[in-house]
């Protein structure tokens, strides 16, 4: 009978928590839908430029790609690589095909080689098969999948753990009464928010430094740019995660409810931050990714780690990240109104 009584109490307690009931049903469906959207997208057709290649091969390649290919010079191709507008440049030297691959997107790299080899085999046949000479504009042939998605993974883990630690820590300040005591003093709301962010921010910065250092110097992930520039992006991403975590913690009553935000806030950002090529997905999904901070943080980190670019090249991503942090900061101040009205 005691067991039945405990069971009834748990059921009643769970039924009173409408958020948990909704999450139990909605979260799995949301995550499955995201996976379906990403994995059920169209095949990626790379953007290829050519110069001085035999007409039959060019026609077959265009047929393989199901899209037009553009005739450009090598200099124009490299400019297009810099602007992210081209995946590969193909030319022939002494009847031997040469492929210059942009190199920063593993999906595009794989599709370029697959389509070019299929076109060559269709025209030349197996007996006259000539293996193309492949070079990379960014990275190298030794760049594996982990190297290419590593920047996204670093950004995600920094964002994820800062979100969890920051949200739970700020929630404990509320549940233990510390925040209420501060609110009973003449201190202003913006001063409280700033103080908490600076205090928690110190530890999130240390955490970000450790994660980035471990990935680069221990796991030996590909790093073409400068370490200190990557740290700036990581720190800004961590501060953005912290401001978001403290904001959402204002609407949670316990640590379990903080965890409930993960399937809604954190997991969707993984799918739209660079691990999968968004060009194969519906346009509305590509637009949705623009509203996710990790999209900009991961892109900036990829530009630095794989392409070797600097802060000046990713300033727009950093500006957007800073904008997210400022908006979350302001909303944090507004959220404190429900605890004290000044």
TrEMBL record:
Cellular component aspect of the GO annotation: plasma membrane
Domain (ABC transmembrane type-2): residue spans on this chain: 110-339
Entry's Gene Ontology molecular function annotations: ABC-type transporter activity
Transmembrane portions of the chain: 21-39, 149-171, 192-218, 230-251, 258-276, 314-336
Compartments in which it is found: Cell membrane
Name listed for the protein in its UniProt record: ABC transporter permease subunit
Keyword Transmembrane appears in the UniProt entry: yes
């Amino acid at each position: 009978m005691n067991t039945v009584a405990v069971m009834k109490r748990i059921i009643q307690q769970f039924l009173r928590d409408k958020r948990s009931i909704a999450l139990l049903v909605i979260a799995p469906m949301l995550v499955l839908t995201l996976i379906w959207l990403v994995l059920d997208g169209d095949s990626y057709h790379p953007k290829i430029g050519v110069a001085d290649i035999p007409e039959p091969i060019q026609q077959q390649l265009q047929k393989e790609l199901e899209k037009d290919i553009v005739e450009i010079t090598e200099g124009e191709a490299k400019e297009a690589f810099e602007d992210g507008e081209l995946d590969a440049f193909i030319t022939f030297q002494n009847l031997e095909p040469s492929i210059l691959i942009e190199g920063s997107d593993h999906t595009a790299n794989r599709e370029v080689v697959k389509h070019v080899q299929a076109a060559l085999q269709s025209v030349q046949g197996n007996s006259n098969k000539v293996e193309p000479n492949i070079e990379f504009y960014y990275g190298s042939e030794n760049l594996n999948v982990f190297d290419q998605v590593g920047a996204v993974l670093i950004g995600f883990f920094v964002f994820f753990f800062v979100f969890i630690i920051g949200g739970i820590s700020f929630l404990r300040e509320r549940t233990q009464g510390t925040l209420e005591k501060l609110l009973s003093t003449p201190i202003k709301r913006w001063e409280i928010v700033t103080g908490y962010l600076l205090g928690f921010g110190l530890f999130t910065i240390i955490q970000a430094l450790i994660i980035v250092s471990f990935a680069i110097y221990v796991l030996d992930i590909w790093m073409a740019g400068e370490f200190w520039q990557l740290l700036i992006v990581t720190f800004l991403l961590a501060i953005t995660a912290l401001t978001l975590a403290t904001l959402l913690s204002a609407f949670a009553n316990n640590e379990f409810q903080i965890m409930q935000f993960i399937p809604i806030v954190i997991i969707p950002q993984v799918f739209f931050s660079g691990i999968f090529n968004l060009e194969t997905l519906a346009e509305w999904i590509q637009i949705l990714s623009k509203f996710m901070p990790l999209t900009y943080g991961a892109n900036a980190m990829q530009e630095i780690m794989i392409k070797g670019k600097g802060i000046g090249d990713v300033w727009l991503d950093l500006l957007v990240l800073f904008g997210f942090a400022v908006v979350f900061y302001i909303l944090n101040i507004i959220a404190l109104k429900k605890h004290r009205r000044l």
